[in-house]
From TrEMBL, chains A, B:
SUPFAM superfamilies: CheY-like. Residues 124-222 form the OmpR/PhoB-type domain. The modification 4-aspartylphosphate is found at residue 51. It comes from Streptomyces rugosispiralis. Residues 124-222 bind DNA. PROSITE patterns: OMPR_PHOB (PS51755), RESPONSE_REGULATORY (PS50110). This is Response regulator transcription factor.
Length: 225, 225
DNA sequence: GGGGATGCTGAGAGTCCGCTGAGAGACACG
DNA sequence: CGTGTCTCTCAGCGGACTCTCAGCATCCCC
């Protein structure tokens, strides 16, 4: 668990550093915005603790730059009670939480832990095509209320097709994506597995989500057939 | 991009509303389940943000009703950490993603964007000539609402002509582009396939999108005939 | 209006493509 | 060591598609 602390006041930085290390975190300290952005670019932090009042590029600036670059690492803002930014600003500029100085270290630690808890279960959303659904994270899928029992290969095939609904995917593409890029066997394997899949997701329901496009490939109907 | 936010807590609803509008979304707010279902029935939302704890019909109820009605709009559930429903429930009842309160707006926005990316995959543009259309990615085509069932060769021929509307293309050019550059058979094959195509895209509709230019080739009318 | 050139069309044959059932090999588990 | 599950290969079938060919229609120039 790596944490970046952006803070120019030496004593605060040192205190936080010491405290977090005692809690088994890896800590990096940046004393200004430039250094912070440099570190963030080259490291993968679990949380960033960011003081707003910094020399040069301030915290406000750092946070916006960060978000603009598509970095979604949780940011905890530190503000002075009498500062020019208030809590609303802090959240508006892309922070996930804020803390007003002075704060106790226990509170800071609690907030950091809360952010970590929240950001770790990054589950991918459920894929859908009509009443056909597949949850990649839970590795479950079904049609309507009925659960479907698929083998790993069948599951992979369906997942890939659900990620490309209403698009024809060729057998070679499927081989490369669902099997592996260097697959050298008989491409007929795709037909075989499409057959298996149909017998599980279509035939029993009298539907046809997977359509054959002769000479081109297969297409999953976005409405589920 | 229209988003429905179902949330009874005024301050949260207002904050989300403000944030989403700043990001160029059209936002509707519903403060209870009844109103939400009413709005959903009459509008086409890109995403629905749904709080589970609502007065009257709760979010659980709303989501199930929605799915039962065959509406597949992505739903993002908001749950309180200490609520009676957990994430597993949220996904089981037909949601696409969930977020635990408290959440930061950036995270919410990121999740909404992820759902949008999935439901509106950027696809190659659909080719058109009047009411005649062809979607290369989905490998589908039709005239108006009517779908046309073409063989691969017919499809290739129509696609090429749609990419060169109002332009005379010679038979040798068609042979080279739709068949292959080394084609050595009877060039009459082009006439044969133009015939097949006409019988599918023109004759049944009393139209004539493909015109013969004697001694030169064929031209597809950009207005679809 | 004749006649050659050009384009259209129906019939049919051969080929290619995709689907399926049977079964072998790999692997995990009891 | 047997049993069950999963993955993959193979061969045959049936049907869809492509293409050829020959005869007919149409156009255009003389």
């Amino acid at each position: 668990m790596r944490v970046l602390v952006v803070e120019d006041e030496q004593n605060i930085a040192a205190a936080v550093d010491r405290g977090l290390r005692a809690e088994e975190f890896d800590v990096d300290i940046a004393e200004n915005g430039e250094k912070a952005l440099g570190l963030i670019r080259h490291n993968d932090y679990a949380v960033i603790v960011l003081d707003l009042m910094l020399p040069g590029r301030n915290g406000y600036d750092v946070c916006r730059t960060l978000r603009a670059a598509g970095i979604t690492t949780p940011v905890l803002i530190l503000t002075a009670k009498d500062g020019e930014y208030d809590e609303a600003d802090a959240l508006d500029l892309g922070a996930d939480d804020y803390l007003t100085k002075p704060f106790s270290f226990v509170v800071l630690l609690a907030r950091i832990r809360a952010l970590l808890r929240r950001s770790t279960p990054q589950r991918s959303p459920v894929l859908r095509a009509g009443d056909l659904w597949l949850d990649p994270a839970a590795h479950r899928c079904g049609r309507g209320d009925e659960r479907l029992d698929l083998t790993p290969r069948e599951f992979g095939l369906l997942e890939f097709m659900l990620r490309n609904p209403d698009t024809v995917v060729s057998k070679t593409e499927l081989l490369a994506q669902v099997w592996d890029a260097w697959f050298e066997g008989d491409p007929n394997i795709v037909e075989v597995y499409v057959g298996y899949l149909r017998r599980k997701i279509d035939t029993p329901f009298g539907r046809s989500a997977i359509e054959t496009v002769r000479g081109v490939g297969y297409r999953l109907d976005a409405k589920g057939g």
